[in-house]
Amino acid sequence: MNLRPRYLETLADGSWLARIVPMSGTNRATTEPLTVRVIDYTVDDGRDNPDEYRLLTTILDPAEAGAEDLAAAYARRWEIETTFDELKTHQRGPRAVLRSKAPDLVQQEIWGHLCCHYAIRTLMADTAAHTGQDPDRVSFVKALRIARRSVAQSAFPPPGADTADAIWSHAIRWLTQHLNPPRRKRSHPRVVKRKVLKWAAKSSHHTHWPQPEHTPHTTIHIH
Fold first, then answer.
1. What is the SS3 assignment for 54?
2. Is the pLDDT score of 25 beyond 70?
3. Helix (H, G, I), strand (E, B) or coil at 41
4. How far is CA 34 from CA 19, 30, 37, 53, 56, in A?
5. What are the tens digits of pLDDT across the range 116-161?
6. Which residues 6+ apart lie within 8 Å of 50 measured at CB?
7. According to the per-residue pLDDT averaged within each range, which of 28-37, 64-73, 199-208, 213-222 is highest?
């Protein structure tokens, strides 16, 4: 889809407002234009030719989210897949299905999983704030493990930790001692995977391929 943003004005952080028509085909002429904010930026990771990007967002006010903040957040968009893995593989369990059979109960069970995930993520965020480390260094699997221990094992809290705040603080201290190593720096090219075929690419001399003069005779060899 070619959006072709039409320039409106430049904003203080270097981004600019534009109008686009989020539709292609015959309905494009009757579709109401949408105002978006355009952020043009490059990512320089030390190579000779930095990659250029264009980000479109409906967050129009730079005071609400600056251009650099949005560009940095966009680079982490793939991490939503990590969240799906946390919910489906680790928290719910591999190949596990929802137990509920009625639509209302299924919805209730999904909300339960989401609330549980939010609570674990809150514990991870508090641990990162307590240690001053990057939140990526706090392990979801370890946070899930200690949350389950706090519910299933009465011996989990230390002596005297008989309140929720004390148990929460103990969990943070335990996670602080079991942080993940720092992430290594990685970079990947913006390329499209192409399946390798055993056939040669078609060229001009294949257009006028010589045709057989006789009916072909097929021979089958049994090995």
1. strand
2. no
3. strand
4. 5, 12, 10, 21, 11
5. 999 999 999 999 999 998 888 999 999 999 888 877 665 556 666 6
6. 42, 43, 44
7. 64-73
Residue the block writes with tokens 């993520």: 121
Tallying the residues shown for the chain, one arrives at 223
Beta strands 6-10; 16-20: pairing state: antiparallel
One-letter amino acid at 220 equals I
Q: Contacts for 171-178 with beta carbons within 8 Å, 24 or more apart?
A: 171/123, 171/143, 171/146, 171/147, 172/123, 172/126, 172/127, 172/130, 174/146, 175/123, 175/124, 175/127, 175/138, 175/139, 175/142, 175/143, 175/146, 176/127, 176/130, 176/131, 178/139, 178/142
> pLDDT band for position 46 (50/70/90)?
low
